From TrEMBL:
Signal sequence extent: 1-17
Domain of life: Eukaryota
Disordered: annotated span: 141-176
Biased composition (Low complexity): 147-168
Keywords from the named record: Signal
Name recorded for this polypeptide: Extracellular serine-rich protein
């Protein structure tokens, strides 16, 4: 039984992490189906999870940079998710892709599908006083900047989980500040359940 306490102590930080649910294809102002991310700005801590929930239409969540919001940086890419327009905005069983935040460095995302980024479909994660969500959204409306040969994509691994009815492509990319989440939460639940049986 003395090992149960050690096991619980090692799993507890993961069980206490917060999940930020972000609607992709949901109007932040009205809460209805639409364009963008709802919310479009979040401030997670290390260990928290971002759950991208895909609404009706064709949408994606792609990691970018502050200076070039509408161009993927080789980091996280959810893949394209197509959801029937007949479903309610918060219908059960919508496709979900989860990623865990490794640190509190800023992360930037856009909806690559249908050119929505240039219309303001962007997400700012942990923006700073110098790199604000407002300026990030303004940058998205500008033409893309030429790629810099000195910049390199982030190199931290990430994976995703999705609902059973999700037939979209699974991401297999890397992303700065993001990590594995789905299997870890399941393992923590199994371990915690076994401790109290």
């Amino acid at each position: 039984m003395k090992y149960s306490g050690l096991l619980l102590a090692s799993v507890l930080p993961f069980a206490m992490a917060y999940e930020y649910r972000v609607g992709v294809g949901k109007d932040e102002t009205t809460g209805r189906k639409g364009m963008g991310f709802d919310p479009s700005v979040i401030h997670p801590s290390a260990g928290d999870t971002i759950a991208f929930e895909f609404r009706s239409g064709v949408h994606s969540a792609v990691q970018s940079s502050f200076d070039n919001p509408c161009v993927g940086n080789g980091g996280f890419n959810s893949g394209v998710h197509t959801v029937s327009d007949d479903l309610a905005v918060d219908a059960p069983g919508l496709p979900i892709v989860r990623v865990t935040v490794n640190d509190t460095e800023p992360l930037w995302f856009f909806d690559e599908a249908g050119g929505l980024c240039h219309q303001g479909a962007v997400l700012a994660v942990n923006p700073t006083a110098a790199q604000t969500a407002t300026i990030f959204k303004e940058n998205a409306a500008l033409p893309p900047k030429p790629a810099s040969s000195s910049s390199s994509p982030p190199s931290t691994t990430s994976t995703s989980t999705s609902t059973a009815n999700d037939s979209a492509t699974r991401p297999d990319s890397s992303a700065s500040g993001l990590a594995v989440s789905g299997w870890l939460a399941t393992a923590a639940g199994v371990v915690l359940g076994g401790l109290f049986m």
